[in-house]
Design a protein that fits this description.
45% of the residues lie in helices and 11% in strands. By secondary structure, it is an alpha+beta fold. The chain has four domains: 3-185, no CATH class; 212-386, no CATH class; 391-535, no CATH class; 549-712, 2-Layer Sandwich (Methyltransferase, Cobalt-precorrin-4 Transmethylase, Domain 2). Strands 1-3-2-7 form a four-stranded mixed beta sheet. A four-stranded mixed beta sheet has the order 10-13-17-14. A hairpin with a 2-residue loop joins strand 20 (688-691) and strand 21 (694-697). Helix 9 (213-224) packs across helix 11 (248-260), helix 12 packs across helix 13 and helix 15 (355-368) runs antiparallel to helix 16. The termini are far apart.
Length: 715
């Protein structure tokens, strides 16, 4: 379909965008890249459409009337089409409202001689007729001859030479021809159901600004509950007014957590069977739980704005916990434990990576265990010590979570702005918003060797230990006085203000020559007081949380863990492969001959949990019982009944709704030999042991020594 036809069909109400589509999210650079590609006649992707008599809710003001018959919907490519509509018409397409255009990409200018693309810059374009608004070219408001005439007028009658004139003419034509470019169209069959259409949308969405798993889940939710997106956005706007700035994907993860007690497998929200449950859950979240939890975090954790936290996803386990308690409110002890865990989740960066897997684990504990925040805290401490060391502040800037913790702590003490004496809690009026400034002014430090040219010293100048929390009005009027003058003035006006922000009282440290010594002392003060602050929030137990399967899988293979995708079905050859069974049997022997270990079947080398369905289909009844019987028969044949019954523990846990097989192999009391048939059909006995993350054969000359050493120890 030609681009001009696409735009005409949008205006003629023959081409629509479904309500489940997200807002317009392209940036100006995306728009420039698209136009540049079109001018140069490069490929620009495809559009995915669906013609249906049963459309979902449509974006914009148009309401579908069954009398109009089938309508065509844009499922993929709408970001590009919206970009072209806006640049070629100068208007917002009828399926969007102004607030859904997150970035306005109109007013893109082109240099009609060089084809350079830039957004309007007065100094570059005001006096240069070669820079023309693209929309004016598409709308024929500016033509080739207009530019030539204006150029010649600036040259006081001197004519433009033929080559230059032709080049400008050719460039105008190249731009105008964009309207006639074809967008290759992929069409979903009319018989497809709404869920199927969105699933296809999910599969083909691989270009432009890709959808996240959460955005795709939201598309499915909006497909069967059209009002969902606007309801969610309305709540987010309300929360933002209180300082809690969150995105739609946050809401989706919360819904997954409260409905399914997990943080991954967002496809669980795709099915329409969720509709009533999601609507009921949202009603509680909207009317009660969100406000309740965020008021707790504001009043008890001193969090006035989400820009003070390292990851907003740490709110989700607390929200799930509050939701699961129903009408019962959290006790003061529960609140303190949740706050304590939240602080450590920030400074130890719990959700910086592997978000879904970690939410899975944490929400599972919140939903199923007593004292969940004690256990969650112990998970963090197993990865990193909880105690804050003074050297953790070295070279750390205001983007680090320790800066957030410093502010929370200062607020808890009733700290005040050093210049105005106003408490640094959230204050009334924009000019009293919190900011931060250098105690030792950067301009002075820069002139004394701490410039950006010396990265190490520059990082010290920007370190959070050289920062004080101020109100905006104080920061705007604060001069670049030496630290001695600034701190002395604060001490005189507000005697307790320095102590409340952990600023050393020793005036010798305020001198410029002692700057690095000042940082050293403040690091020590902060580490000591922050550790005491965190420890004194509340007592938590040292209950250990056993390493679970998700953790084990995330850590990958090692000397005691091996993964196999299948027991016997070859996914490449699409048939049973007995050699795969031989490898499994060899692995069991290797673990037994070593220190024992765990074999997990149904997990790939890439740590993807795929389950046992492929193997089940090779068995008569296709059940886990038959699978276990088959595995034990293999072991009986290879190593005897005694080994199969006493050395192996076989289980079939469900991880992320997928059944896998876990075989725990005990450390053997006697050596196990494996019979192997070579390519000539000759059978040999081999001895395998675990070495690193693989099963290795020990050379026959070394077997006796290994057995004497290894099995002597087990007698």
């Amino acid at each position: 379909m030609k681009i001009s036809q696409i735009l005409d069909k949008i205006d003629e109400k023959q081409l629509f965008v479904p309500a489940f589509q997200r807002e317009y999210v392209w940036k100006r650079q995306n728009a420039k890249d698209l136009i540049s590609s079109l001018i140069q006649d490069y490929p620009t992707g495809t559009m995915l459409t669906w013609e249906t008599n049963y459309p979902p809710e449509l974006k914009g003001d148009h309401k579908y009337d069954p009398r109009q018959g089938a309508v065509k919907l844009i499922l993929d490519g709408q970001q590009r089409i919206t970009t072209l509509y806006m640049l070629m018409t100068g208007k917002i397409p009828p399926y969007y409202k102004a607030h859904e255009i997150l970035i306005d990409i109109r007013n893109l200018y082109v240099n009609v001689e060089t084809l350079a693309l830039e957004y309007y810059k007065v100094t570059l374009m005001e006096q240069d007729p070669l820079w023309v608004n693209l929309t004016d070219i598409f709308q024929a408001k500016v033509r080739y001859r207009d530019v030539i005439q204006e150029l010649e007028s600036k040259l006081e009658g001197e004519r433009i030479d033929r080559d230059r004139s032709d080049r400008i003419d050719d460039n105008f034509r190249a731009i105008e021809k964009i309207k006639d470019r074809d967008f290759q169209e992929q069409i979903i069959p009319p018989k497809a159901l709404l869920k199927e259409a969105i699933d296809i949308f999910y599969i083909v969405n691989a270009s432009g600004v890709n959808l996240t798993d959460a955005e795709l889940a939201l598309a499915q939710i909006s497909g069967y509950w059209p009002e969902a997106r606007e309801l969610f956005k309305a709540k987010l706007v309300e929360l933002e007014k209180s300082g809690y700035v969150l995105k739609l994907d946050f809401v989706v993860y919360v819904l997954l957590g409260v409905l399914h007690n997990m943080g991954s497998k967002l496809e669980k929200l795709h099915d329409e069977s969720n509709k009533e449950k999601i609507q009921a859950a949202w009603k509680r979240l909207d009317e009660d739980v969100f406000d309740y939890v965020f008021n707790i975090m504001k009043s008890q954790a001193y969090i006035d704005h989400t820009n003070e936290v390292n990851s907003v996803y740490a709110f989700i386990p607390i929200i799930v916990y509050a939701f699961n308690k129903g009408k019962e409110r959290l006790s003061q002890v529960e609140i303190k434990k949740a706050v304590k865990w939240f602080y450590y989740s920030q400074i130890r960066q719990r959700y910086i990576s592997q978000l879904q897997a970690k939410l899975d684990k944490d929400i599972g504990i919140v939903a199923n265990q007593e004292n969940p925040f004690d256990k969650l805290l112990n998970i963090i401490s197993a990865d990193r010590p909880l105690e804050i060391k003074p050297d953790e502040f070295e070279g750390v800037g205001v983007s680090h979570a320790l800066w957030g913790l410093m502010k929370f702590y200062f607020k808890s003490k009733g700290a005040m702005c050093l210049s105005t004496g106003i408490n640094i809690r959230k204050n009334m009026g924009k000019k009293y918003d919190l900011e931060w400034d250098h105690i030792f002014p950067y301009s002075i430090l820069r002139d004394n060797g701490y410039s950006i040219n010396n990265r190490q010293k520059y990082s010290l100048a920007q370190e959070i230990t050289n920062r004080a929390v101020l109100t905006q009005t104080a920061n705007r009027t604060k001069t670049n006085n030496m630290a001695q003058e600034y701190l002395q003035d604060a001490l005189t006006k507000f005697p307790n203000s320095l102590k409340l922000q952990c600023i050393p009282a020793d005036k010798e440290l305020w001198k410029l020559e002692n700057f690095e010594l000042f940082l050293e002392h403040r690091r020590s003060i902060l580490a000591g007081e922050l550790n005491e602050f965190l420890n004194n929030i509340t007592e938590t137990s040292d209950d250990n949380v056993a390493t679970d399967l998700i953790d084990m899988i995330m850590e990958g293979e090692n000397s005691s863990v091996e993964f196999k995708t299948t027991l016997r079905y070859d996914l490449r050859e699409h048939q049973i492969n007995r050699k795969l069974e031989d490898v499994v049997i060899k692995t069991l022997a290797a673990f037994s001959n070593g220190q024992g270990g765990t074999l997990v079947m149904g997990v790939t080398d890439e740590l993807e949990i795929v389950g046992l369905e492929a193997d089940y289909r090779t068995l008569k009844d296709g059940t886990k019982d038959e699978f276990e019987l088959h595995l034990r028969n293999l072991v009986n044949t290879a190593y005897g009944v005694e080994f199969a019954t006493s050395n192996l523990v076989i289980s079939f846990p469900i991880v992320n709704d997928i059944e896998i097989c876990v075989v725990e192999i005990k450390q053997g009391l006697r050596p196990i030999y494996t019979e192997v048939t070579d390519k000539n059909g000759i059978k040999n006995k081999k001895f395998y042991v675990r070495s690193g993350n693989s099963s290795q054969e020990i050379d026959i000359t070394e077997v006796a020594q290994y057995i004497n050493t290894r099995f002597e120890l087990t007698k």
